[in-house]
Amino acid sequence: MNFEQKKDGSCDINFEDHEIKIIKKHKKIYLSASSLRHFGNCLMRMVVQFNEKFPDAVKQEATHNDSKVVGEKPKDV
Asked: Does 62 map to a domain?
């Protein structure tokens, strides 16, 4: 999987075909300790890059323990 941030601050998460099959069958994906380490490192890098591109209004938003992350259909399809 990879993360592709758009100029407006939004992001697409792109999955490989084998990952889609796993998610369809199991409704989740497993990351080994090594994969989780690499995912975490990539995520930390992305967090910095994402925050640089967010519009000022989004930068001011607060996230709480009960905040929901809602995925949507891609805007470019």
From this structure: no
